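Researcher: I'd like a structural prediction for the single chain below. Treat it as a standalone chain; there are no partners to consider.
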Amino acid sequence: MPADLAVIGLGHLGLPLAQAAVAAGIETVGYDSGPVTDSTLTAAEIRRMSAAGFRVTTNPAELGRVRTAVICAPTQLGADRALDLSAVGEAGRALAARLRPHTTVILESAAHPGVTEDYLRPILESGSGLRAGRDFHLAYSPSRLDPGNRTHGISNTPKVIGGLTPACTESAHAFYARLTEKVVRARGLREAETVQLLETNYRHVNIALMNEMAVLCHDLGVDLWDVIRCAETKPYGFQAFRPGPGVGGHGVPLDPNYLPHTTRTPGHPLRMVGLAQEINNRMPQYVIQRSATLLNEHGKSARGARVLLLGVTYKPDLADQEGSPAREIASRLIDLGALISYHDPYITGWRVRDRPVPRAESLYEAAANADLTILLQHHRTYDLQGLAVKAQLLLDTRGASPVGAAHRL
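Model: Treating it as a single chain, here is the predicted structure.
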């Protein structure tokens, strides 16, 4: 059965996009060569999508019957800190072999400037024999999904689009106008791609500033959380970010120093982005340092200490663990000889170094028995006032506990 839309890649980007399309009455098919990996939609939500006509397929032949194809394949930083585009290439090749004239192809995967035109376009053209901008439309749209955000979703978050040609831009505009209240046209592909770069780097740089402030304020005996509370009352020129044990999530900061040589600028890399990444990567070790100091101040050694980790996901009230600092913190605690356990209402099984970590079934009992409890993620189900009473020592890395109830980062 033909569909208006094919969403290629049913992870944290693709499945919510398919959900929005189905809700808008667009006949949608989801294609993925592997299992569905999104953890932000419930099983009930997926069942409702299926009842409304949404189909999941592993048959690439289905891609040849759609008017619009959106590639939402995952991209992550590799060991060399370069963006791994292999999943985008695989999606492009699957689509290219079935691509029909007049189809609109849109890339939503995180990408550095130049990926759509210099990497995806040749794959589509060589595999289909068609020419982008003449035979089919090609565009890029940075994803602005914020998993778990109950205020801003696809329908009320402005969508940026940029096409290879003006006609490509207008075709992508016509598609997204069916999903969202406002569509913003960028000048072209690279401008749209760079929007993603700017927004992601902006987040990481500002979190890095707050992480540095957290260390400084602790050394000075200043309550940073109160400083932020006061500063965010300024009606202009300030946006509140908060420190934490590390920066998780699917959006990765990109330094042009690690872009392919063909897309690098002859000038300097974004040194601030590299420094921000360095600062944020140090936060798990800082959490370990604070933990060891707290234990020592109470006459206990990290070796043999019972440490309970609360919340191992990267965002509150979600099961998504992408980029969460919890695993590194747990690993470092193990290196110190600590005996770790965890509690997370969204994660029923958790492994570190391929070994299962004991899960606390009774939260308050576990906190009372632990020498140190570390809040890594503030899920709404956690009563921090009650936990502070039960826990022998509570280190709050999120600044979520009442004043004086815990040791804050």
